[in-house]
Amino acid sequence: MEDLADIARFLGKFFYYFVESVIFHIIPKPKKNVAGEIVLITGAGSGLGRLLALKFVRLGAIVVLWDINQENLAETCRLAKEHSSARVYGYICDCSKKQEIYKVAEQVKKEVGDVTILINNAGIVTGKRFLETTDEHVEKSFLVNFFSHIWTYRAFLPSMIANNHGHLVCISSAAGLVGMNGLADYSASKFASFGFAESIYFELRHLKKHGIKTTIVCPYFIKTGMFSGCLSKYPTILPILEPEYIASKIIKAILEDQVYLITPKIAVIALVLKQMISAKMSLALGDFLGVFNSMDTFQGRKERENSNCGNDSPITQMQQDKEYRKQ
Questions:
Q1: What residues act catalytically?
Q2: Between the CA atoms of 218, 223, 224 and 227, what dihedral angle is there, to the nearest 10 degrees?
Q3: Are 122 and 66 in contact (CB under 8 A)?
């Protein structure tokens, strides 16, 4: 009888949440107010990070911006202050270095306060085949794309748990759901960041910290320079995403406490099909869509535009590291 009661409870919840999801697809979900929230964005010097910063200041949030590139960071701060009277703070931080993250995090806590919305946006990509990628580049990909998430969570999650209030945002990738040719190290690091964010989401639910929300973002290639040169065989089906479009989608997902944001929709369909059809059928679909050749024309950003702590910055060389150490 107890088993039957469990099954009945499960079916009741399942049906209720199904109806709820259908309703919210028809009627817009209520959006939360983020005015006064302290939002920290890593890799905020350019690209997606900059766009998110500008959108959050318009919503009245207190914005904390991290980037390794001082010039880009200063420009984002300037633009943010132009768009709003909200408080804006910029900090130089190399997200590949654990102790630096902890040090800057303590500085943020003292000077600004407890971060309530954490957006792990910083990312790098080599864009090379695995055996052409150096060990240093592979390690750097994991340090920025994955380990920085662990370190920022350790720095800011305790205060969120203490207050049962906060929002954790992981900018992963479609390459964190499906492996991609020419992106072995990047894809592996994005799989890791997705798995980590999802695991913490479940952990917080188990702890009944329902006031702490999670949003995991998995977009296809974005036109920010990070994947400059990449092409889509069928742009109408699998488009290279416009930065403004994906930034708006992310803001909407955060305001509506959406857990998963996978875009474009064809990526969701492909992910489901991957579990249902044979490997050869999946390969045939990938060949048709041209996803296995998307990186053939990859160029990335020029060296002087790079930042090894920004969502739109390929790590073609380590020059930025050398420049940073001189500062």
A1: 186
A2: 80
A3: yes
